[in-house]
Design a protein that fits this description.
mainly alpha, about 290 residues, two-stranded antiparallel ribbon
């Protein structure tokens, strides 16, 4: 009972205090139409001019000044460019960079020489008879750096013609994408066989372009990948033939000696490694891959 009385008394006191505060606030607001100057160190409230319309309605006018649509003075947030010199804002540049990074794996695999590099290097490892030496990480890393070496002129053209002008605000994002597309198309057309390109043009059931440069990427990319796979398997066959001869010689020798229970791989593997080291096989493969593009 005492607890209930204490709670009731406390609620009554709080209600009385709120009533007094509201009554005094309305009284002072009515008595003082002009606001007193704020003391130093306090933020004065912002008041907007009011105008009364003929029909009795009151309208409030706000002067936004030079504040842009993104809340910053002198910046246009609608098109993502700086209002001073037309350069793209930092947020747009970061967004474009993240988009490119998310699409980078697909672009590297489908629109560069990476496919041919990694397939040929994998076939060379299997031709020797080693399943995990060199490991997959080494094969993939070597293919990536060989692809960067081959694609360096194309990357330089994209940087000079598309990325740097876009960074300086000289062109829009759409123009930058069109300029970046041209060097990639030129590279892929140079390394795409006519048969694969005609195949994809026939499957698309569209009108043939007037010039190869006007071929769409949706048609050019699969034709380029098919051509790269064909070239990779042709090089792989040339690599496999010497090791196949060694396997046949070793197998026939073991059969003539009556050692049919001995797997030929145990005997042929040292000879394969010896031949590969003597002819400097990895350098020959890298030279063949790079020279085919140049």
């Amino acid at each position: 009972m005492k607890l209930r009385r204490c709670l009731g008394l406390l609620l009554a006191l709080i209600g009385a205090g709120l009533s007094i505060a509201l009554w005094t606030g309305t009284g002072t607001a009515a008595a003082a139409p002009h606001q007193a100057p704020s003391p130093p160190g306090t933020i004065a409230p912002v008041t907007a001019p009011t105008t009364s319309a003929p029909d009795g309605r009151v309208s409030i006018g706000l002067d936004l000044g030079d504040v842009g649509s993104d809340g910053a003075t002198g910046t246009n947030g609608a098109n993502g460019t700086d209002g001073t010199n037309g350069k793209p804002s930092r947020s747009i540049v970061i967004l474009v960079g993240l988009t490119i990074l998310s699409l980078a794996p697909s672009l590297v695999v489908l629109m560069t020489s990476f496919t041919r590099m990694v397939v040929v290097l994998g076939l060379a490892r299997n031709a020797i008879g080693l399943q995990s030496v060199p490991p997959n990480q080494v094969i993939t890393g070597l293919a990536v750096f060989l692809s960067l070496f081959v694609m360096s002129p194309t990357i330089k053209q994209i940087n000079d013609q598309a990325w740097q002008p876009y960074q300086r605000g000289e062109i829009t994002q759409t123009d930058a994408m069109k300029r970046a597309e041209a060097p990639l198309k030129q590279f892929m057309l140079k390394n795409t066989r006519r048969e694969e390109l005609d195949l994809m043009l026939g499957l698309s059931r569209n009108e043939r372009p007037e010039t190869p440069d006007k071929t769409s990427l949706m048609t050019l990319i699969p034709a380029f990948v098919l051509s790269e796979l064909k070239s990779a398997f042709i090089i792989g066959v040339m690599i496999l033939l010497p090791f196949l001869v060694i396997d046949l010689v070793v197998s026939s020798g073991l059969m003539s000696l009556g050692m049919m229970m001995l797997p030929p791989v145990f005997v042929s593997l040292p000879f394969k490694l010896l031949l590969f080291v003597m002819v400097d096989g990895w350098s020959l493969i890298a030279h063949a891959l790079v020279s085919n593009y140049h």
